[in-house]
């Protein structure tokens, strides 16, 4: 769905509502002037316009949502065939093949696991966005389009720290592509539409709202900044898109709270953009690193460290030889700003430093025993990134 089309649909709904209000005002003026009062606009009109917006978004985005299964290649454990009286019996051979597989002894054999998750096409070249946990441990994937066409896909790259993976398949024609929106502008209460394949039920659409933004400490990934939604998300939805009323992907559905209802989480589109670009270009994610271990802030700790409020990230440890050590940071310093951005908590500082460009020098404001200080820190490459190099 093009942004222009989506905006037109939403604008139509808004204009209809405003038009109804204007018509009602005209009726009031007409009545005061002695004219007959016109009929009140039907409340169903606005509801129909909103419904049309949902239908349009679903029709435009669903063809970009795919069904993913994994392919695992292993050494066949099929025993050698022992000649016997039934060796040439077709029924016996079919039974034997179904039980042990059709590969010969010692040959490599493929095992497919269908219906593991969802994905969304983000590029006409066949790039598909999904979750890392959907394809973890797979040698390859099968990509099934909404048209039921099935393709062999390969894993271009994955990032366990954000639970994001990119798959590539070779389309034999044009494919529908979804557009990634701006998740930083999301507001709690906006409409949210989840599309995916829960329990293998292809192309399922559920509707809810954005329940919260910036959720962390969920325990799903290292870098968490989740969108929370009450749009129904179930096993199989993982990797599918969370969409707004403009038809833009605002997040990638990744997890649910098993003990609760109406609590699902999606990775914000802006985080996805940064990770996806690196996975497509380099097959891995390179992150910035300043070399500190952090701990949460509390009101009691803020008072003890001389910080006027409970915002900021407390340095628990400075790693030897790190950029932070070179800049003079020490344990119990409270980082309040990073490269001009106010630090909310230690999760926020983790994200800011990991997103920083390697080699840049940034200003870090911090508080030490009640005294405000500033340091210049040169961003290094995360040791995890370096270890991941082939």
Biggest β-sheet: count, sense, barrel? 6 strands, antiparallel, barrel
Give helix % range.
Answer: 25-40%
In N-to-C order, the SSE pattern is HHEHEEHEEEEEEEEEEHEEHEHEEHEEEH
* Low-pLDDT sequence parts: 8-34, 91-96, 386-390
Q: What is the gyration radius calculated from CA atoms?
A: 27 Å
End-to-end CA span: 39 Å
- Count of alpha/pi helices: 9
Structural class: alpha+beta
Summarize the structure in words.
The protein is an alpha+beta fold and 390 residues long. Helices cover 27% and strands 33% of the residues. It contains nine helices and 21 strands. The chain has a six-stranded antiparallel barrel with strand order 1-2-3-6-5-4. The longest helix has 30 residues, at 3-32.
Overview features:
6-stranded antiparallel beta barrel, 6-stranded antiparallel barrel
Spell out the blueprint of helices and strands.
Layout: H1 3-32, H2 43-61, E1 65-75, H3 90-100, E2 108-123, E3 127-130, H4 132-135, E4 140-144, E5 150-159, E6 164-169, E7 179-180, E8 191-196, E9 204-215, E10 226-229, E11 241-243, E12 248-256, E13 264-268, H5 269-282, E14 288-289, E15 292-295, H6 299-305, E16 313-318, H7 323-327, E17 334-338, E18 341-342, H8 346-355, E19 361-368, E20 371-378, E21 380-381, H9 383-387
Parallel strand pairs: 7-12
Antiparallel strand pairs: 1-2, 1-4, 2-3, 3-6, 4-5, 5-6, 8-9, 8-11, 9-10, 10-13, 11-12, 12-13, 14-21, 15-16, 16-17, 17-18, 17-19, 19-20
Helix pairs in contact: 1-2
């Amino acid at each position: 769905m093009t942004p222009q089309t989506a905006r037109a649909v939403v604008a139509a709904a808004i204009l209809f509502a405003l038009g109804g209000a204007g018509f009602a005002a005209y009726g009031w003026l007409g009545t005061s002037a002695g004219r007959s009062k016109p009929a009140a606009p039907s409340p169903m009109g606005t509801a129909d316009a909103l419904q049309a917006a949902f239908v349009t978004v679903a029709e435009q985005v669903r063809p970009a949502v795919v069904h993913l299964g994994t392919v695992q290649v292993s050494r066949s454990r099929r025993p050698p065939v022992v000649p016997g009286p039934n060796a040439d019996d077709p029924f016996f051979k079919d039974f034997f093949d179904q039980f042990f597989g059709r590969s010969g002894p010692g040959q490599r054999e493929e095992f497919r696991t269908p219906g593991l998750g969802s994905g969304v096409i983000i590029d006409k070249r066949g790039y598909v966005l999904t979750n890392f946990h959907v394809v973890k441990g797979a040698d390859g994937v099968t990509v099934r389009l909404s048209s039921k066409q099935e393709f062999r896909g390969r894993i271009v790259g994955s990032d366990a720290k954000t639970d994001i993976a990119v798959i590539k398949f070779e389309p034999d024609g044009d494919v529908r592509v979804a557009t990634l929106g701006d998740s930083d502008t999301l507001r709690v209460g906006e409409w949210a539409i989840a599309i995916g394949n829960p329990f293998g039920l292809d192309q399922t659409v559920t509707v809810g709202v954005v329940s919260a933004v910036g959720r962390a400490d969920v325990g799903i990934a290292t870098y968490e900044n989740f969108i929370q939604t009450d749009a129904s998300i179930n096993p199989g939805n993982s990797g599918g898109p969370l969409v707004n009323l403009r038809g833009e992907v605002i997040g990638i559905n990744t997890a649910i709270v098993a003990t609760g209802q109406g609590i699902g989480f999606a990775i914000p589109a802006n985080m996805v953009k940064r990770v996806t670009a690196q996975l497509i270009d380099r097959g891995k994610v390179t992150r910035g690193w300043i070399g500190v271990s952090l701990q949460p802030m509390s009101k009691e700790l803020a008072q003890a460290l001389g910080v006027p409020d409970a915002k900021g990230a407390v340095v628990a440890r400075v790693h030897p030889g790190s950029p932070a050590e070179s800049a003079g940071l020490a344990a119990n310093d409270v980082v309040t700003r990073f490269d001009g951005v106010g630090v909310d908590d230690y999760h926020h500082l983790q994200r800011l430093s990991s997103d920083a460009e390697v080699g840049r020098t940034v200003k870090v404001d911090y508080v030490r025993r009640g005294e405000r200080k500033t340091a210049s820190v040169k961003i290094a490459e995360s040791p995890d990134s370096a270890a991941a190099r082939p």
